Amino acid sequence: MINAAWLIKRKVFKFIIVYFNMKKRALFILILLSALFSFYVSAGQNETMTVEANIFAEEIYQDIISIEVPDYIFLGNVSKGEETEKAKIYVNNTGNVNVTITPQLKDLSDEIFRNLYFQNRQTGNNSAIRRIGNYNFNIEKPSAGGKRSEYFYMWLDLTDFEESIIENRMGERAEITFIALPQN
Description:
It is a single chain. By secondary structure, this protein is α+β, with helices and mostly antiparallel strands. It has two domains: 52 residues; 116 residues, Immunoglobulin-like. The protein contains one helix and eight strands; from the N terminus they run H-E-E-E-E-E-E-E-E. Strands 1-2-7-4-5 form a five-stranded antiparallel sheet, with no helix packed on it. It is rod-shaped.
């Protein structure tokens, strides 16, 4: 019986040790899980976000003078003693002020294109005909951020041309500068 009692005590003691070891493991696993969980919870509470914005300086109103003119106009064929058809030319005011525009020949000594003529309208009060260098026109400022277009007529008039033209001048060209100034 001693043997049997001793065996029972040993099994109970072994069961207590195993039970105690399992409790330790469970406690260890529970502590480990708590630590991991608290790390994820604290990491979730401290997230980072990048914020970006464009910061502009105080807007100081400035007069902006800006126009758009066609790059190229072909006036057609013409001979001495004749004039070309009137070409309707559009000019855009893309600035923020009313402008007066004066077309000028880049080469003032050009004998052919000194005979360019301009007219605002073909009839009415604005129908006066002016030679290049003596012509200007106004364009009002556009509404907020847009552009305002105006047109004029331009043609080459060689009816009173006094120089002799002894050979054909195919592709005869001249550059015109459009000078834009704020209206007074």
